[in-house]
Automatic annotation (TrEMBL):
Pfam families associated with the record: Rieske (PF00355), Ring_hydroxyl_A (PF00848)
Residues of the Rieske domain: 44-152
TM spans (from-to): none
Keyword Iron-sulfur: yes
Record key words, sorted: 2Fe-2S, Dioxygenase, Iron, Iron-sulfur, Metal-binding, NAD, Oxidoreductase, Plasmid
Official protein name in the record: Rieske (2Fe-2S) domain-containing protein
Species this chain originates from: Thermus thermophilus JL-18
Superkingdom classification of source: Bacteria
Family matches, as PROSITE patterns: RIESKE, RING_HYDROXYL_ALPHA
Cross-referenced InterPro entries: ARHD_Rieske_2Fe_2S, Rieske_2Fe-2S, Rieske_2Fe-2S_sf, Ring_hydroxy_dOase_asu_C_dom, Rng_hydr_dOase-A
Length: 441
């Protein structure tokens, strides 16, 4: 059982107080429980179907402490396999991506096709009569897809993926419906490691409270860009950065915060970046918005074009649906080491356009590992991890906005995450909703 299990999360709706014990970020025992009860039981985001468009295309991933690879087989079906040879265990897929008709283990040359079948065994005649190739194909976890997003589950009897996603399907639809020809992941990724617990990065990803104090450099950059356009700098206040924010409770630990996007010519369908293009690009954006409204209706089209959102897919996948649409996975390595991988998701029809250049400029200036914001976030969460060594302070406080029904900056998405986390590491049934108790009355 988890240490201090009755005190790990203090949730007091009467006083509007929510606190998390700092051992949740430092304990090896709790980390092991997370491996078993969270990463061993929940649906985990693996990749996007667009990453493997053709038969034989594959990508290699490390998910929930397990090596996997995703491949499109000869019939066009997306398959996922544990990346381990059924002979002696070596990695079968040894490159991050590529195209192959077969996968051959470098150790003893056992060979598997794109359906995972064992099709070649050197010296097969020297095995005994009980040797059966049909029983030694590559093994697969449970696999599910929704709107092109591919998930895996390592448990024996998981819930259906769509039931697990619950209300998160609605916000995933908002992401997918931006595109007229489908959303695709751009070539390449950003990968980096941080010296902090994985849950700190999850919190950071759905935390708007830190933006103004932490990302001053980026805010000054926005002021500078506006000055180049002769508009004057007005981005430095919290009201300019995040307006009409609301926390979304999506069920099963999924959560988001949604807010008005900055009015710079339409987003995220075809974001105008002030350093690229001009009136010609603005006109393109207006045309895209008109088609969007015609296709989805004015209300839904306006929510896509004028609202942005940071989405948490419990436990460790983040989608930042803003000027750039960022896919981020947060992979625990140890209690104080985390691996981050990011991809950029874009409408297929934007390939080769100035609108795509604008998206990429927005992505790199803010979200890239060398951008104006990500290094701030890394420094912040690593600083928190270092501060936990001061053991005399036992709890983190996540009470901002607790029991408040009005829109505004809130730590609700983090409370949603922690309530689900706390239930699962105790081996309790997954709750169906984790709204703030007072606000839900």
């Amino acid at each position: 059982m988890p240490i201090l299990k009755e005190h790990l999360v203090l949730d007091d709706p009467e006083r509007g107080v929510f606190r998390v014990h700092r051992s949740a970020f430092t304990s090896q025992e709790i980390f092991d429980l997370e491996r078993e009860y969270i990463f061993g039981q929940c649906w985990l985001y693996l990749g996007h179907e667009s990453e493997i468009p053709s038969p034989g295309d594959y990508v290699r991933r490390w998910i929930g402490g397990r090596p996997l690879f995703m491949v499109r087989d000869e019939d066009g079906q997306v398959r996922v396999f544990y990346n381990t040879c059924t002979h002696r265990g070596a990695l079968v897929c040894r490159r991050d991506k590529g195209n192959a008709k077969v996968f051959q283990c470098f150790y003893h040359a056992w060979t598997f096709d794109t359906k995972g079948r064992l099709v070649g065994v050197p010296k097969e005649e020297r095995f005994g009569p009980g040797f059966a190739k049909e029983e030694l194909g590559l093994r697969s976890p449970r696999v599910g897809t929704y709107r092109g997003f591919v998930f895996v589950n390592f448990s024996t009897n998981p819930p259906p993926l769509e039931a697990y996603l619950a209300g998160a399907k609605e916000v995933l639809d908002l992401v997918a419906d931006q595109a007229e020809e489908g959303m695709i992941v751009l070539e390449g990724s950003h990968r980096y490691a941080i010296r902090a617990n994985w849950k700190l990065m999850v919190e950071n990803s759905v935390d708007s409270y830190h933006v103004v104090p932490t990302h001053q450099t980026y805010l000054e950059y926005l002021e500078y860009v506006k000055s180049l356009r002769g508009e004057g700098g007005k981005h430095s206040s919290a009201k300019q950065m995040v307006r009409h924010e609301v926390g979304l409770v999506l069920g099963n630990g999924h959560a988001a915060f949604e807010y008005d996007a900055k009015p710079v010519g339409g987003r995220p369908v075809a974001e105008y970046h002030p350093l690229l293009g001009g009136e010609e690009v603005r006109q393109e954006i207006e045309e895209v918005k008109a088609r969007l409204f015609a296709r989805l209706g004015g209300e839904r089209g306006l929510r896509i074009a004028r609202r942005a959102r940071n989405i948490l897919l419990f436990p460790n996948a983040i989608i930042v649906d803003s000027r750039a649409v960022v896919l981020r996975t947060v992979e625990p390595i140890s209690p104080d080491i985390t691996a981050i991988t990011q991809w950029e998701l874009v409408p297929r029809e934007e390939l080769g356009t100035n609108r795509l250049k604008g998206r990429m400029a927005a992505y790199l200036s803010f979200f890239g590992p060398g951008g104006l914001a990500t290094p701030d976030d890394v420094e912040a969460v690593e600083s928190c991890q270092a501060g936990f060594a001061a053991g005399e302070v036992e709890y983190n406080d996540l009470s901002l906005g607790y029991a408040k029904e009005d829109s505004g900056v809130t730590e609700l998405p983090m409370r949603v995450f922690w309530r689900q986390w706390y239930a699962l590491i105790q081996g309790k049934p997954a709750p169906t909703s984790w709204e703030d108790p007072v606000a839900a009355r």
